[in-house]
Each structure stands twice: as structure tokens, then as C-alpha cells.
Design brief:
The complex is a heterodimer of chains A (126) and B (128). Chain A is mainly α and 126 residues long. Chain A has helices at 6-11, 19-46, 52-60, 62-90, 94-124. Chain B contains four helices and no strands. The mean pLDDT of chain B is 93. At the A-B interface, helix 2, helix 3, helix 4 and helix 5 of A face helix 1, helix 2, helix 3 and helix 4 of B.
């Protein structure tokens, strides 16, 4: 439930035009990333020296694939939100800021989807 | 608003760096470094999905001395950003703003991130 009045929504004041949602999603993805990132680090260490077959078997396993997808989604969303704040803090020329923000958003989406497709491919096609 | 060049009072040259401000900007710096590193992570993952040759090529790059160095730096950034991130979440919950607590938690982040990096790499090298 949004606490914004209709006028506030329409005006879209503030550099990001919508602050609270951004703040909350940043925290939500951060909380999700704490266990998931740790799991990933532990997994990568355990996979040190693994050959291609072993790696595909690990990534293709349903549980691992699921957590990997969560990792991918949370990481790229969190990264995009974080980079957005950095750009908004230092870039004040609107002509530069907006295209850069769009580029970052598109990059996050593209990299997220291609990573997810890679994981799904290993899960379903080996 | 027009981008008019106005004189600014010096800040970075004047204000003494403190643990709080240094850790704060480091949190931002590690975040940016981690974001850049995800590109290589994507490459590795996609290479594994593409096939054995692509995967081996990626593994060779990662195994090179520059790859290992980059990985060590990236893993340190990860542990630092993770621990300081938790510190931020505790602040978001409303705790830990007292100066002495902020300093203690700050040092815990610095020491913890170095420790985690060392431990992770030791285990990785032993396992390998």
C-alpha cells in the first residue's frame, strides 16, 4: 500500500522520482543476498578444480539451480539499485544521467537473463 | 537548474578521514567493484553452459596469475561489502548508532573481511 498522495505520485519529485520503493527493494535484496552469497562462496570453494562435467552436474541440480537463479536475480537487482544511487549522486547533467541510468538498467536485465538462461540450460539440457 | 560553476569550500582536502567516512566510501567503492566483477561471473557461467571448450578457456583465464589476483581482490570486496552491508542493515533497524558502537562494528567489519578472505582462500587452496 503506497503512502503517497495522488499529487505526489504525479509530481514524482526527488532525483529517482520514487524513493521509498527503491530503499525497500535495496534492503530486501540485501537480506536475501546474505545467505545466498555465502552459499555461493562456499560452493565455489568446494568446486575448486572441478572439471566441466562436475560443474554442470552441480549447477544443473534442481536445488542449486534454484538458489543460483535467486542469486542472479537478487545480485543484478541489488547492483542496479546501488549503481543508480551512485550515478544520481555524481551526475547532474540530465542529458548524461538518464541515458546512463537506462544503460545500467538494461545491462542488469540482459546480464541477469543470460545468466539465468545458462543455469536453466544446464538444469534441463545438461 | 543551470549548471553554473560556483566556488566550493574544500572538503576532502580539509576534513580528516575517520573510520566512519572511510568505511562508508569503501562500501560504495566495493559495491562498484563487485558490480564490475559480475561481468566476469556471467562469462564464467555462460561458458559452462556453452560447453567444455568455452569452460576450459574461462578456467584458464581465472587460473592465470592475473585472474587469481583479480579473484582475491573481488572476494575481499565481496566479504567487505557483505559485512558492512550487515552493519548497514543493523542501522536500518535502528541499532548501533552510538559512536563507540559504530567504531567497534566498523573495526569488526575491517578485521572480519580480511579474516574471511584469508580463510576462504586457504580452504580453497587446500581443497585444490
Amino acid at each position: 500500500m503506497s503512502l503517497r498522495t495522488p499529487l505526489a505520485r504525479v509530481r514524482g519529485l526527488g532525483s529517482a522520482r520514487d524513493g521509498t520503493h527503491h530503499w525497500w527493494m535495496q534492503r530486501l535484496t540485501a537480506v536475501a543476498l546474505v545467505p545466498v552469497a555465502l552459499w555461493f562462496v562456499v560452493s565455489v570453494i568446494a568446486l575448486a578444480g572441478a572439471g566441466h562435467d562436475d560443474f554442470v552436474a552441480w549447477a544443473g541440480n534442481p536445488f542449486n539451480a534454484t538458489v543460483l537463479l535467486i542469486l542472479i536475480f537478487a545480485t543484478f537487482y541489488h547492483a542496479q539499485l546501488g549503481l543508480q544511487v551512485v550515478v544520481e549522486d555524481y551526475v547532474h547533467n540530465e542529458w548524461v544521467k538518464v541515458p546512463v541510468l537506462v544503460l545500467i538498467a538494461f545491462a542488469a536485465i540482459f546480464l541477469g537473463i543470460i545468466s539465468a538462461v545458462a543455469v536453466l540450460k544446464m538444469a534441463f539440457a545438461g | 537548474m543551470a549548471n553554473v560553476e560556483r566556488p566550493l569550500s574544500p572538503h576532502l582536502q580539509i576534513y580528516r578521514p575517520q573510520l566512519t567516512s572511510v568505511l562508508s566510501v569503501s562500501h560504495r567503492a566495493t559495491g562498484i567493484a563487485l558490480a564490475a566483477g559480475t561481468l566476469l561471473l556471467v562469462w564464467w557461467l555462460v561458458a559452462a553452459a556453452v560447453g567444455e571448450d568455452a569452460y576450459e578457456t574461462a578456467q584458464d583465464w581465472i587460473g592465470s596469475w592475473i585472474g587469481v589476483l583479480a579473484l582475491i581482490v573481488w572476494s575481499y570486496a565481496l566479504f567487505y561489502h557483505l559485512l558492512n552491508g550487515i552493519r548497514h542493515l543493523v542501522w536500518d533497524a535502528g541499532y548501533g548508532f552510538e559512536l563507540d558502537v559504530a567504531y567497534k562494528s566498523g573495526w569488526a567489519v575491517v578485521i572480519g573481511s580480511v579474516a574471511l578472505t584469508v580463510v576462504a582462500w586457504l580452504i580453497g587452496l587446500i581443497a585444490y
